[in-house]
Amino acid sequence: MVALIFSLLIYPQLGSPLESTLSADGHDRLGFGIYHYGRLSFYPSTEPTVMRVSIYPLLVAGSLLFGKSLYPYPLIILQALLHALITLLTYRIVKELSGTSRHALLAGFIVAADPFLLRYIGRVVVEPLTISLFTLLALRLLRYNDKPNFQQGLLLGIVLGIAALAKGIFLVFVIALPILPALTGRQERKMNGETSNTSMKRGFASSKTLLLVPLRSLCLILPWTLRNS
């Protein structure tokens, strides 16, 4: 509700003085290209492009299903829901880390009213989606760290794959995830003064387990890579 009020009533009064445009990076045109032609193209061009990834333009195209005459308001509502999701995910992360609802509620209120986040809701920009995916990725990584089983690894890999299809910078996590346990395990062993083979095996075992997560992500990314080749 805070996001909708800010985006529909407050931000339009600030947008003009701040010289803020409705769309950035051509995502609106890509969404219209998917809606009209069924392909990722900068509308009105019908030529497919590889300059952007597909998830956010699909969200724009989905908002057009509610009626082109209503655009961009259905998209703003969808992005307000993403903002609510970010708030809820932040609450869950802080509660699991702190163990108290008071700190989690405070973090949730801060995120819900954060002007840096709210300024994206009323525009056709990828940030509401990528921030929500980054926050979800953080929660899934936390859950996987607590219980590194097949189900948690599968969910983490799926979220990471979707995030990489939303913005290419998430590919860094695909590369970094298998390396982190070995590095953190080595640092912990140095801090604790552990040099036994058992501690080393524990670090390597966690690294091998986490190696499967990027492989699951790549299964989602591979079709898009083949499309662009």
Rg over C-alpha atoms, rounded to the nearest angstrom:
21 Å
Number of helices: 11
Strand content: under 5%
Helix proportion range: over 70%
Q: Which regions contain 5 or more consecutive residues with pLDDT less than 50?
A: 186-191, 195-205
Oligomer: single chain
- Shape designation: flat
Would you tell me the overall average pLDDT? 81
SS class: mainly alpha
Run of helices and strands: HHHHHHHHHHH
Biggest pleated sheet = none
N→C terminal distance: 43 Å
Number of strands: 0
Quick overview of this protein structure:
By secondary structure, the protein is an all-alpha fold.
Secondary structure elements and their pairing?
Elements: H1 2-15, H2 27-37, H3 55-64, H4 73-98, H5 101-112, H6 115-118, H7 127-146, H8 150-166, H9 171-176, H10 180-192, H11 197-228
Structure description:
The protein is mainly α and 229 residues long. 72% of the residues lie in helices and 0% in strands. Helix 4 (73-98) runs parallel beside helix 7 (127-146) and helix 7 packs antiparallel against helix 8. The longest helix has 32 residues, at 197-228.
Characteristic terms for this protein:
about 230 residues; mainly alpha; 11 helices; about 0% strand; flat
